[in-house]
Design brief:
homodimer, alpha+beta, Arc Repressor Mutant, subunit A, Chorismate lyase, 2 domains, 6-stranded antiparallel beta sheet, 9 helices, 28% helix, 33% strand, elongated, DNA-binding, WH-like_DNA-bd_sf (chains A, B), DNA-binding transcription factor activity (chains A, B), transcription regulation (chains A, B)
Chain lengths: 237, 237
DNA sequence: CAGTGGTCTAGACCACTAC
DNA sequence: TAGTGGTCTAGACCACTGT
């Protein structure tokens, strides 16, 4: 494991277990670096992670402090830093995926543009309903280029596409761009999410990339408004 | 200006102006470091920023590449990295703020907890309607501790509270935690946002912190669903 | 003033990729 | 194997804070 990761994990554990008093600054970077037998840069990098998680804040010339409200807050909802797919995110819940549509087609202009592919590259067009503990949770409409994501079949779609990508195809997911908006329910939403005419849906539009920079997924996830909150931590630089 | 910021800006400009071919890796870090007369670490840090913006991706052992779709995408909507307040965000638009409520009160348990203050510390309780180019845009319900954010008055509320905080009070905003959800419109929403019974709203709940780690704002911004999209870039580490 | 974090350097070695 | 990015070091100086 990388040194800065190990140190970061250890410091996170200490803070959660209140090893350090939340009323005082934690030890300064040089002392911690000595304790962990690393350079100050590496110590700094380890603490940077906790700062970006909203667990610590720094005051130049003064010290590094614990953000009290962070200690007992465990992030239960989907965050900004995660990009896992439902299966891993709600690993302890019973998840069911039913396939509403599973086609191969030529991409529209919009889809081709988002996936950075030519219009003659076939794309999978998948619509799935995901249920959590038997309750409808989200409808996902997904486009994936067939040349990149191969061997997709109904068995995979009933389970986890993300696991297929990372474990079977040995690809590495690098990140995504997302847009989040509220919308009125479509007929499809009402039917499958079992929502009323005046129940809003929360839509997450996403383009996800591999570590090669190639977009492998363009998707719209439409969530029941009463079952999904998108969380985000923003730290100004 | 910091060296890595300058370099980062220059590289962003070059990429946008297609100084580098998008089909090839950009020059390696050591060459760029020589060109910019900096160490490789500093060059790396400058490029890190562009990677986190979704403009570049790296392939270890291979090089650093431009994400094509990023070149012409200008971020028009609110992003994850911004925390500015409307006034600065839409600086070229005509923004009008009307005050629906402006009170001082003792905080509820929930508000006291979010702002990390005692229940005997008075908080401002503000409701504003923000209009952009004459059209209703968002209703903001905001709680701010009166001991931290002082000298708040109607004049400030008609303009920019963020400017008041940064310029008049000389405080530094460090970041925020946000939750985004869809909701049905309340009576207040319908009245001021001029939306129908079945028009959803997009709610952004936010706790914003100063660089001292003290929360200074707990707010709910309720947006018309047809006028607001929340954007987010997520890069896996 | 002493002590803190912010930036930057000039190197080193390692892990991975393409050839 | 050569070239790339990823990590890490041991220092340096600077900017800012509180006393």
């Amino acid at each position: 494991m990388r040194k800065y990761e190990y140190i970061s994990n250890e410091m996170r554990r200490r803070i959660r277990e209140e090893y350090y008093s939340a009323d005082q600054p934690i030890p300064d970077e040089l002392s911690l670096a000595k304790e962990f037998d690393c350079s100050r840069m590496t110590m700094k990098r380890a603490l940077d992670i906790l700062v970006s998680e909203g667990m610590l804040y720094r005051k130049r010339g003064h010290g590094t402090f614990i953000i009290k409200s962070s200690i007992h807050d465990l992030p239960v909802s989907v965050t900004d830093r995660e990009n896992l797919g439902l299966t891993k995110l709600l690993a302890n819940k019973q998840i069911e995926s039913s396939i509403i549509q599973f086609d191969v087609e030529f991409p529209s202009n919009e889809v081709a543009k988002r996936l950075s592919i030519e219009k003659n590259v076939p794309v999978y067009h998948i619509i799935r309903l995901r249920k959590v503990e038997g309750e409808p949770y989200v409808i996902e409409k997904t486009y994936m280029p067939s040349n990149l994501i191969s061997e997709l079949n109904e068995e995979v779609l009933h389970g986890s596409v993300y696991r297929h990508i990372t474990e079977t195809l040995k690809l590495t997911i690098a990140g995504s761009h997302r847009k989040i908006r509220a919308d009125k329910p479509t007929e499809l939403d009402r039917k499958y999410l079992e929502c009323a005419y005046d129940d809003p849906v929360l839509e997450v539009e996403q383009v996800a990339f591999l570590n090669t920079g190639e977009p492998f997924e363009y998707s719209f996830a439409r969530h029941r408004y009463d079952k999904f909150v998108f969380s985000s931590v923003h730290i100004r630089k």
